[in-house]
Amino acid sequence: MRRLAPAVLLLACLAANGCTTSRADGSARIQTTGEANRENLKGAVRAPLRDLNVLRTKIPPVLLAAIADPYERPPHPTCIDLIEAIQPLNDALGADLDAPSRDEDDLLEKGRESALGAVASVSSEAIPFRGWVRKLSGAERHDRLVQAAITAGGVRRAYLKGLGESRGCPPPAMPSHELAGSPIPTQQMKPRYPIRR
Fold first, then answer.
1. How far, CA to CA in Å, does 24 sit from each of 42, 88, 192?
2. How far are the Cα atoms of 18, 48, 57, 89 from residue 54, in angstroms, in the given order?
3. Does the pTM exceed 0.90?
4. 8 Å CB contact between 93 and 154
5. Residues 6 or more apart in contact with residue 54 via CB below 8 angstroms
6. Residue 14, pLDDT above cutoff 80
């Protein structure tokens, strides 16, 4: 019981700071529990609060609407309407696959994330039977809802970009068809195993 007293005190102090997670940079981009735990030291120390479902990731309304019906057809899908529908999804999900992104192979960034992941793991070990606690507290169910929201938002964005492409809209209302950081092949690639008819 003595071992749990400091952990309970730490959790109570951290709980006073708020009940939903938000990014340190102030953006509205949604985060999974793992991303929130590895974002910064504060996020790593708050890992037990996420396990107890005291601290939860807030799901943006645009992603909740996407969960309800990712293929809902816009009433008048003009190019401007599609851009206005895609922008909140970009804000919530981050850059799409066709947009340039930061270098993911940065060794310093990977080392930082690994260290913060270790801190989060150590702070989560203060909770005995962590797996059961996550299940009983509803944290595991909320994490699945966050993942479903991210998936539905990605599907919704792709659907809207497909509508934009069918109408001949410019990017961002359609995919840019350029892979970030890799050259576009100039010749048609032949299938490795051609189908014979």
1. 9, 19, 46
2. 9, 9, 10, 26
3. no
4. yes
5. 11, 15, 19
6. no
Tokens of 147: 């993942």
pLDDT at 15: 43
**Preceding omega of 172 cis (within 30 degrees of 0):** yes
> Can you read off the two tokens belonging to residue 18?
């708020």
* pLDDT above 80 for 197: no
Predicted confidence (pLDDT) per residue in 80-127, tens digit: 999 999 999 999 999 898 876 554 555 556 666 666 666 556 555 666
CB burial readout 61-93, b (16+ within 10 A) else e: ebbebbbeebeeeeeebeeebbbebbebbbebb
Task: Take residue 154 and report the two structure tokens written for it.
Answer: 């990605």
